[in-house]
Amino acid sequence: MGPVPELDDTAGACARRLTDADAVLLASHIDADGLTSAAIASTALERAGVPHEVVFKKQLDETEIASIAAREYDTVLFTDFGSGQLDDITAHEEAGDFEPVVADHHQPADAETQYHLNPLLEGIDGASELSGAGASYVLARALAAETGDPDGNRDLAALAVVGAVGDMQAVEGELVGANSAIVGEGSAVGVLDEGTDLALYGKQTRPLPRLLEYASEVRIPGVTNDEQGAIGFLEELPIELRTDGEWRRWVDLSDAEKQTVASSLLQRALERGVPPGKAERLVGTTYTLTDEQPGTTLRDASEFSTLLNATARYERADVGLAVCLGHRGAAFDRARKLLENHRRNLSEGLEQVKREGVERADHIQYFDAGGEIRETIVGIVAGMALGVEGVDGSRPIIAFAEKNDEETKVSARGTGRLVGQGLDLSAVMTEASRAVGGDGGGHDIAAGATIPTGEEAEFVETADALVAEQLG
Ligand code: C5P
Ligand code: C5P
Ligand code: ZN
User: Fold this and answer.
1) DSSP character string of 51-89
2) Residue of the nearest CA to atom 19 in ligand 2?
3) What stretch of H or E contains 197?
4) Is there a contact between 241 and 297 (Cβ–Cβ < 8 Å)?
5) pTM for this structure?
6) Is residue 215 pLDDT above 90, yes or no?
7) Is the pLDDT score of 373 beyond 80?
8) Ligand 2 pocket test: which of 30, 59, 451 has the largest number of ligand atoms within 8 Å of its C-beta?
9) What is the mean pLDDT of the segment spanning 222-243?
10) For residue 383, which atom of ligand 1 is closest to its CA?
11) Is 333 exposed, middle or buried (0-12, 13-18, 19+ CB in 10 A)?
């Protein structure tokens, strides 16, 4: 039995279909979840002896599906997308172009196909309980079982967790539901370690003052964005801050030293007026990839996923895939350079939003980044912007960015609380984009669309009315 019993039957059927194929074209999405999905599926196909080729797409639409059909593979495996475009995909299936197998977690379009593995079809939440990489992992486990090894492929759980963390599936910092069953399998075979630790980005790689200075998860006056403040805070603590003149990193500290820093930081946050509920978020669940070298980006699921976004969202999915498949050396060096560039772009993007502010409709807020923020990362920036000064943390945010001369990319982000009140951004993006001749989809909490340039105002009006209905 696989890690998600509800999906066992479908996963088994999909696995049999794939092992029956002479060759498979594997198509996946260009983000951390899509890359890890592809790496998991590719490794599992390889182990099952199924010849295959991997391609990545920024977004699946009619044109891209047609280009996939033109490759003339009898069997196409879609991971981390496909469900939302099932109408277009099944049209090709009916035309005899290829037979699809889909392992995805996006809101399905109104169409059905035989080999469709999606948590949402079984009442499992695709935004918080299983990612695309998780669906691929379920498939990978079924592929192992199909080839006579019911316990096989559990080492791939580490990548599945990187995908889930990359898709921000952790609820209050922790993976839940089917995701946590995958964590369990990875821990059982020793590739993962779930622990409680400081919940800041950069524990593996950043010098201590940087770790604290750059932490945007919880803002602490006098520490966050304050180099001297961060150094001053550390210097008051009874710990050695340097080894051979070099700043130590979080990973270099002993457990007792970590405890000291974490509790002092929490205390400092409370003293400086950070509400207790927020300050608590300084500590959370972390996922460590135990086979990776300590002190590297790949050791921590969160840092690993950011590294992957830094490749695939900049047209270098090949680099990210190579790293996922275990290549180090040149691919990893390249990925680290791309990461520096990505982090700079995110920080500049966020600064721009803070500087220019957002516009408000009745129920949503929005900004148009024009050509200033890359369309492949504007959604990440929108998510980071929710809750910064000048941006309302309690209403959905919509961002526009130039895609090309004719099209605008739209990204939308909400909060768990709004979803609890009825918000479904996937429905909003789908309907509001269709109303202006575009196309969209995603999850209740995070979704996107492509619309014809010039339709932004009309789109905002429709989206605002839809959100009003959902929250009304
Ligand atoms: O296409 P895909 O499903 O992989 O992308 C999911 C997107 O939704 C990611 O960009 C992720 O950051 C975003 N998300 C979010 N907040 C959540 C869950 C997902 O911003 N709670
Ligand atoms: O691009 P962005 O990060 O904003 O995407 C948010 C979510 O919406 C992702 O899960 C993505 O796959 C989905 N999306 C979609 N159709 C689009 C654009 C985004 O399903 N045209
Ligand atoms: Zn995904």
Assistant:
1) -EEEEEESS--HHHHHHHHTT--SEEEEESSSGGGHHHH
2) 448
3) strand 192-198
4) no
5) 0.94
6) no
7) yes
8) 59
9) 94
10) 20
11) exposed
Mean pLDDT of 195-202: 91
In the numeric block, which tokens belong to residue 244? 């051979």
Tell me the Cα Rg of the chain.
22
* Cα–Cα distance, 114 to 10 (Å, whole number): 9
- Half-sphere exposure (Cβ direction) of 157: Cα atoms closer than 13 Å: 29
pLDDT score, position 327: 95
* Nearest listed ligand to the Cα of residue 132: 3
The DSSP symbol for 454 reads T
At 1, is the pLDDT very low, low, confident or very high (cuts 50, 70, 90)? confident
- The predicted structure's pLDDT at residue 218: 86
**Any idea which ligand is nearest the CA of 168?**
1
Helix runs in 80-235, H state only: 86-94, 132-146, 157-166, 178-188, 208-213, 227-235
Tokens of 133: 């990489």
Nearest-angstrom CA–CA distance, 433 and 84: 14
Pairing of strands 365-368, 359-360: antiparallel
Nearest partner of 397 among 372, 414, 418, judged by Cα? 414
Site of tokens 């295959």? 52
Phi/psi for 398 (5° steps) reads: -120, 135
The span from the CA of 170 to the CA of 179, in Å, is 9
Which of 167, 409, 411 for mutating ligand 1's site (highest number of atoms within 8 Å of CB)?
167
pLDDT exceeds 90 at position 120: yes
Atom of ligand 1 nearest to the CA of 127: 18
Where does the pLDDT of residue 216 fall: very low under 50, low under 70, confident under 90, or very high at 90 and above?
A: confident
pLDDT at residue 389, as a whole number = 82
